[in-house]
Write a structure and sequence with these properties.
single chain, alpha+beta, Arc Repressor Mutant, subunit A, 21 helices, extended
Amino acid sequence: MKPSLQLKLSQHLALTPQLQQSIKLLQLSTLELEQELEKYLLENPLLEREDDAYAPVAAEPPTAPAGDGEKAPEETEPVASSSGEEESWLGEPDGGYANSSGSFDDDDNDFQDVQAATTSLREHLSWQLGLMGLPPRDRTLVQCLIEALDDDGYLTQSLEDLAEALPPELEIDTDELQIALRHLQHFDPTGVGARNAQECLALQLRALPADDTQMLALRIVSGHLDLLAGRDFAKLKKCVECDDERLREAQFLIRSLNPRPGAKYAALDARYITPDVVVRKVRGQWTVNINSDAYPRLRINSLYAQILSRQRGSGLSGQLQEARWLIKNVQQRFDTILRVAQAIVDRQRQFFDHGEVAMRPLVLREIADILGLHESTVSRVTTQKYMATPRGIFELKYFFGSHVATEAGGACSATAIRALIKQLVGAENAKKPLSDSQIADLLGQQGIVVARRTIAKYRESLGIPPVKLRKTL
């Protein structure tokens, strides 16, 4: 063996720093982009945001061209915020549980919820404990129970486990903890300190004025809550010996209770979405514009740029080039988002006109082929990018999905099928709700061939309970 020189010819793809930055910015969400830009602004003195107070009028964000080449007066439809459905703890598809007053629309209750969000459950209970004239030992035990509650106000640990966890020198037994728990269960909100949902509801019922309905509801909660949750009304009526009317009144009373009394004191984790693009109808055509609030306006610092133009070979020349690359890549990012969003809107016009039932099947490759982009690029653009429309705010990925074949040889999107299922369930007879097989048959009559198991999967994704739990008296 001896050393030798060899010449080898090969090809490989090298990602330049500019291309790497472009790819990185493209996959960031609006919030992540702002954080990334702040880092660049701190590190590069030649880069700055345009100051509205002193800078000239900033360049407008990219806008999709109108159909006739002219920007027409906009016929803007208001953007409606999408609202999720409340999930019922008893499986009701049409409502959740109310608070102790049974009302959802009271402005005073809304104000109280806002106030409660600023005070934690433990702070609220500790404040009440301070108003009670308990001996120091009892006060300490109640405070220990308060600290052991979960966010819903339940005591998930047994009294025996809590007694063992306390210092042995205190010589605390379960009887003392039981007395402390009774004190705690008289605090506001009613039902706090319960060890399960059955006890929580029973505590709230016992706090109400006694009458026939309250007594019947207490019997159901204490011994037959599983039958009520399972909608086995025939067996439940035999167990409590009542008619349909009385059972209906007791059920209404139970549903007005709050099985999570401490939830309204939980810390609110609000997440705000800034849409990247806005969809409007202009002269009968759906057009897409970049949201000006999401578009960062960057520029080169003019003072440093003038100094660099007179001084060649300055150490800031590299940072000047980096600043230019960043501005160009940010512009390119929004150009790509705009192109993809407009292509999506062009192919989902029926959705914007008629809603989810008109959603057509769409895959990433279709948009990629139309725009001459790679599928991975379209995937990056549609992830964590949002579109504000007259029908709500949607992630761009929302408009893509699987499809189901129709008898006519076409295809129906999964989103449209979910919307049809929701419509059928909303219009069903509550006393005779539709089974998954019946829903599949009804869709089959419309030419959409869907298996029963697929119906069940879509129904569960919509949060719609099975037929047994949707049945009412």
